[in-house]
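Friendly challenge for the regulars: who can give me the structure tokens for this chain first? No prize, just bragging rights.
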Amino acid sequence: MACLLGIDNGLTVSKAVIFDEDGREIAAALRRVPQQIPQPRHVERDMAGLWRATAEAVAEALARSGRAPGDITAVAATAHGDGLYLLDQAAQPLGAGILSLDSRAAGVVAGWQADGTAAAALARTGQEPHASAPSALLVWIARNQPERFARIGHVLACKDWIRFCLTGSIGTDLTEASTSFTDVSTQAYAADIPGIFGLGTLNLPDISRPDHVVGHVTEAAAALTGLRIGTPVVAGLHDVTASGLGIGGYGEGIVAIVAGTYSINETVTRQPLSDARWFCRNGIAPGEWNAMAISPASATNYDWLLDRTFGAERQAAEAAGGSIHPQAAAELQAALARQSTLMFHPYLFGSPHGAGASAGFLGLRGWHDRGDMLRAVVEGIAFNHRLHVDALREGFAPREVRLTGGISRNPAIAQLFADVLNLPVTVPGTGEAAAWGAALCAGAGVGLYQSPRHGPPAPEGAIFDPQPERAAEMARRYALHGEIAAQLAPIWPALEALAPEETA
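First reply, four minutes later:
Bragging rights claimed.
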């Protein structure tokens, strides 16, 4: 039976997952890829180190699978979107890769909001620029690192860098191309769009469909990964879209939610519909768009609280080969069963209200314990997803939700999402959703499937229906959550001004 390799490069980990053509996971391996924060708001990583880590993960997954290199029929990569991975004219890394958590260009975007550039970009590209958009980062580099800007040969995304390392070919795919510079109507580059941002001519990569074969594994890449020389590699796709595809959530009438580093909420449409509350980006085929409502305010807040309040227990559990999550789940379940005044806005690393908004607990009392704090954080995460889902409801009237991400494995959290969103929520049985979405593209590229949407269905998972009384209570708490955020809007900038940082 043919096997497929899906590579998934997130913000902290590079994974390699081997599937058989029926979608069963055969083997997986990962490597942590260190982030570099050389100064506030700068979040980067070494591009050569990223490729080495990815190659090591592929080699280990292949060894674990027990399959011969020739059994890998095709390869696809997916990775975090936005950010920037630059090559010089000799196709060598031009500085560190910039992650989508980077906010150095926040001042650039603030200026665009004030002078009308953001509105012009929304009309032409289907989205307002944000701090880690390629357009904003390129302008920041032009202003602050003109020598580096002058040496730019190729403007790539993360997964495009991995594709280059595997094949030596330079290009991108339909989904990734639409992060800044494509016409929302034609789904192709337009000559006037860089000028909206004050940029001149850019050497933007050629665009392919995610499932088109764009190269083959080179001798050098084969030596590092163990893959067979000549193995087909397809263009791959943005990990947001890959995750939706991998959980069976890529389609009209469905909101695919990823509760991870980012609050990701997306739905597919056959017509481009632009709104400042979501990105209208290209889907996996011409004539399809993916409306993506996103903010960096989801499950990393949960991990942060576990680190701060379950630190000793977490270390002990992991040292014994276990996990802190069962204990945290029990304390969360107990807290959900009682009334609480405690609320949390999950803006530790960003928000849908701009870069100036910050996190905070309100309603905290001396009798609250860490279970109550955990409940408030998880509620805040779900409320932030609802903010985005409500926007998508206005534009697209979705009927159901597909939920993935580590915290979705906790049934209490999945039920909370159903109650907060007041929609049925399915948590599919797909383990590595983004890697499987990439693998579906690889399989389609070599003819195993009619298209990435026609592969094996996602494994059935648990379904959580909203509970009417609980949904009504969550609606009241959500309304207060939003009112508090509105009241804090003029306070957040004053807080930020206590420790000013350069964002121009």
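The two ends are 54 Å apart (CA to CA). The longest helix spans residues 370-396. Your move, everyone else.
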